[in-house]
Amino acid sequence: MVKNRLVALLLAVSLLTVPAYAATPEQQSDAALLHSLGLLVGAEDGDALDRAMTRAEGAVMLVRLFGAEEDMPAQTYPIPFTDVPDWAVPYVSWLYQNNWTQGTSSTTFSPDTAMTCDQYMLFLGRALGYSDNQTAGGQTFLTAAAYQAGRGQTITRGQAVSLTVDALFATRADGKQLAQALAEQGALDAELLAQAAAERPVIPTVDPVALQDSTWQVVNAGGGQYQIVRRQNGRERAASEITVTHAITETGADGIFGYTEQAIYYFDPQTLQHVMIGEMPAFFSNTAQASIDALGSVNGTTLFYFCEAGQDYRFYTWSPAQGWQKVLDYTGRLTDINSLSTVEGKYFSGAFGILSLGAAGNVEVLTRTPCYTMTLLGGILYFIPNDPAEQANGYSNGGRQVRMLAMGQESVVLTLPNTSAYPICLETVTGATAEGVITARGTWHDRAQGQWHVMFSGKGSDVKVVDADNQHNVPNDLDGLYSAAQHMQWWADTLGLSVGRTT
Predict the structure, then answer these.
(1) Would you state the pLDDT for residue 114?
(2) Rounded Cα gap, residues 11 and 32, in angstroms
């Protein structure tokens, strides 16, 4: 069976301050596998798995996947493309001769242009004997949703490597596994292939009907070890064959997980049969101080945080389709995490900012501002930095708008006035009523002297000042005004607002 991870398509969405996409441990493992099978040769800069794959590089990988590289020295079929470098001409020529590519125009192949996910998916579908319509329609090892999500998205070499490995172990249109067919042709070493196939974990498909009314429990097995048990209608239905030092079952049918100092395991929710999905040393320098927890799942994709030494956090997603995908790094103490489910997926907020886990398994970082968020009428309140360039250590002060996400829709629920003399930025959402009245704290920053806080309350653009700092180190314009009431009035006059009371 194929280890059906598809592709890390949706991490290429607009992430506010996330570092450049990095290759996952699984992609590195897949690259090593392709190296051993002779299907991958490194570029001048090594494997460069985090770099976009060019069309020329894609052509080479595809020819190898078709098992045709041994024909390259004799490949002389003429091509109409005038922009192909000499080293790539035999590969492009073979693809053109077999009608696998028509170039980007009548005379160009655009070898240095980045290949897109959907283009590579179509090539893989052709290698498996499927038409482009069948590939786009989800009839290969890829889903139609994955194809649509990948349209126009640049594919990295690491993503292409993992997709290639998935295709290698997929079934062709004629019913034969591609890897087995290549071995029979002599294009792959059969012994190496058999070893690789034995090491690939198989993630079973979850049957939600069979899991109705099921609950999962963590049972102390003694000696610091725990076993996972599934109960249904009051009776034990399955138990894990192995024990772990930590078990995570909160995600229910979307995923049961456990880990030791050596490995991370996925447990089939129905049978609780285990599959190793990662080695702990690949994620941690000191596994004895390591911890993992699941924040929540959407349609089989689970969002985790990995913690090392109590303050270095990394957020990952895992799914049978995509494997491990890194989302975000965060250093500090992880405060309470707020979670909200919507028709579009789930939102998670805390000191690290706000992450959105969509129904398709894609993750978006809405903000890395360390602001407090809360739920209101089924929505999550937050604000986005108004000037991402004004940041220190990846963080910035919030903008002037409090926004709410509810039922997959975003709306602005509070807007502060915009002034140039004392530009107030939101810092914290502190309260909300069922009528939609928001209370929030704003801050004016004077880099030379300090900062001053002002509390606002209101709805939409109808905002009032309800509290202010009562300090002696005030702006020059406030010199001599030391009472809270005077401070509130000064800020209200300066910002063109009125003074009110906290709702």
Answers:
(1) 92
(2) 23
